[in-house]
Design goal:
This protein has 240 residues and is an alpha+beta fold. It folds into 2 domains: 103 residues, Beta Polymerase, domain 2 (2-Layer Sandwich); 116 residues. It is built from 11 helices and 4 strands. Strands 3-2-1-4 form a 4-stranded mixed sheet. The longest helix has 26 residues. The chain is globular. The protein starts with 6 loop residues before the first helix and ends with a helix.
Length: 240
């Protein structure tokens, strides 16, 4: 039986090879995503990283190509390549993504610049609302097109977990409350704070784990019912 390697060890070996290629132009490398969150599944989850480069390093991205060709077979996904000044210039545009990096990361190499990120509140609220409205629009389309196909509905429900995870993390950040790594707790705490039922979201998590109800149509309709409640709540939220 093939031995399962710790994704943190794999990321460290990957970082060493990247540092050899980029030298001092690579400032930091962080482990993010499921491997940092604690719900990494061997054989299914990718190993996600953030690589911080200088402007000079960013002009030589092709150096990463042969390295990634080797390491993708060990689970390394294409990294998020960022400039050293990204934390000053991009947080307003992508607050949910940066919040996730801030809350759930492991330092593999370099200074821990992610822990000191300041997430702007009103851009965060606006992105939460935008993500929810966009997901509602998309799920309605999927339901109309695929209502008779359980497999397609199931796939759409599972895919929605990442969006709701990011959105609920954002809501707790706005509330100034701790953000749990466990998704079940995250969904429960957010629902309790914002005043909506978490039942359908817990059902989606069960489906994601290969358990739970097989009646995807009912779950889908319940989801389409509760999302507008959350949209209304976040629309009225005072982020100042």
């Amino acid at each position: 039986m093939k031995k399962k390697r710790d994704p943190e060890i794999i990321a460290a070996d990957f970082a060493a090879e990247m540092r050899q290629a980029f030298g001092q132009e690579m400032q930091s490398l962080f482990l993010v995503g499921s491997a940092a969150r604690g719900d990494f599944v061997h054989g299914k989850s990718d190993i996600n990283t953030v690589v911080i480069l200088t402007e000079e390093g960013m002009t030589w991205l092709e150096k990463a190509y042969p390295i990634l060709q080797t390491w993708k077979h060990k689970g390394i996904a294409v990294p998020h390549f960022m400039l050293t000044d990204v934390f000053d210039n991009a947080q307003d545009s992508y607050p949910l993504e940066f919040l996730d990096f801030k809350c759930f990361h492991k330092v593999i190499m370099g200074p821990d610049t992610l822990s000191t990120l300041i997430i702007p509140r009103e851009p965060l609220r606006l992105q939460i609302e935008r993500e929810l409205r966009g997901k509602l629009f998309l799920l309605r389309q999927i339901f109309v097109a695929q209502a008779g196909r359980s497999k397609e509905l199931n796939a759409a429900l599972i895919k929605s977990v990442s969006v709701f995870t990011a959105v609920f993390q954002g809501i707790l950040e706005l509330a100034g409350k701790p953000i749990p790594a466990n998704r079940k707790d995250l969904f429960s705490y957010t629902a309790e704070y914002a005043g909506f039922s978490d039942r359908v979201f817990q059902q989606i998590l069960e489906i994601r784990q290969g358990q739970g109800s097989k009646n995807q149509r009912v779950i889908f309709k319940d989801l389409l019912h509760v999302i507008p409640e959350i949209v209304h709540w976040i629309d009225k939220f005072d982020s100042k």
